[in-house]
Specification:
By secondary structure, the chain is α+β, with helices and mostly antiparallel strands. It has 11 helices and 7 strands. A 7-stranded mixed sheet has the order 1-4-5-6-7-2-3.
């Protein structure tokens, strides 16, 4: 007997068309890949369970996934407040030669860098939703209002407050990709060699290093600020945990590295932010729960 495969339903076809958009929105909102995927899956289940014909699937699905993310963020607030050390987003990694999936492309399009995701942590759940819908997805306030269940006037106020808060943390013009990769290589070489002068040559005076261990891996509890302190921190970390291998990768559209131990286990995923030819921010992900996909 020949097996017959059922054709996808109209609902499934519409959902798959918008899946990348939904994943991109959820990842920006939540900052972790697993939570973003769960939110997208839940939005699919609600979409399939909806009664009657949905005239605008895109608007419906964006509304559903945004509200799911708002609920997740509100329930995770206490966990974030009790988190040990800085909380950094889970990096979205692509290796050399790999083509990004539609979901990955949607998550990193529109210049939504890792640094941008870090800045979003300054915003509350509703602020984040309004800001992303307006700034990244170019939604009108009339469309945003029913999604977050606020008036158009309130959404305008929320957006302007959020933009003002983020403006205080806006970074200077970022260097091109190749220069950032070159500085990443130079930074690692100087740190591993214990070359203080070499580090100070490429670090900005106001550089800040953020390290996320989540209480599950050794990491700085507080951000490390200042060129001298960051240089000593980098050399000290290298002395204790000299990587057995270094893999150049793409992290959220920017050059980064995966550092491994002799066992092959991923120890750290690192990304540098560069402006005016110098390193201004250093992000080190060491929390093993956020490194599973880097293996």
């Amino acid at each position: 007997m020949v097996a017959v495969t059922a054709a996808p339903s109209t609902a499934d076809t519409a959902f798959e068309e918008h899946r990348p958009l939904l994943f991109g929105a959820a990842y920006r909102m939540l900052g972790t890949l697993g939570d973003a995927e769960d939110a997208v899956q839940e939005s699919y289940l609600r979409y399939r369970a909806a009664e009657g014909e949905i005239a605008n699937p895109r608007a419906y699905l964006v509304t559903v996934v945004t509200r799911i993310c708002l609920d997740v963020l509100k329930s995770a607030r206490v966990q974030r407040e009790q988190y040990i050390g800085p909380w950094l987003p889970e990096p979205l990694i692509r290796r050399a030669g790999e083509a990004p999936s539609p979901e990955e492309h949607a998550a990193t399009a529109d210049s939504v860098s890792y640094a941008f995701l870090v800045m979003l942590e300054e915003l509350g759940p509703v602020e984040r939703a309004v800001f992303l819908l307006r700034e990244v997805f170019d939604y009108d306030y009339a469309d945003i209002a029913p999604i977050v269940m606020k008036s158009e006037a309130a959404c305008r106020q929320v957006f302007h407050r959020a933009r003002q808060r983020l403006a205080e943390r806006q970074h200077r013009h970022t260097a091109d990709y190749n220069l950032r990769r070159d500085l990443t290589i130079r930074f690692l070489a100087a740190a591993n060699e214990g070359n203080m002068a070499g580090l100070l040559e490429i670090l900005s005076a106001d550089v800040v290093a953020y390290s996320d261990g989540g209480g599950k891996a050794a990491a700085a509890i507080n951000p490390v600020a200042g060129a001298d302190h960051v240089a000593r921190f980098a050399m000290g970390t290298a002395r204790k945990d000299l990587p057995a291998s270094i893999e150049l990768v793409d992290i959220n559209g920017s050059p980064g590295v995966i550092l491994r131990r002799k066992s092959g286990r991923v120890d750290t995923v690192m990304l540098l932010e560069v402006a005016d030819g110098r390193v201004t921010r250093l992000y080190s992900m060491r929390n093993p729960e956020k490194l599973v996909r880097a293996s």
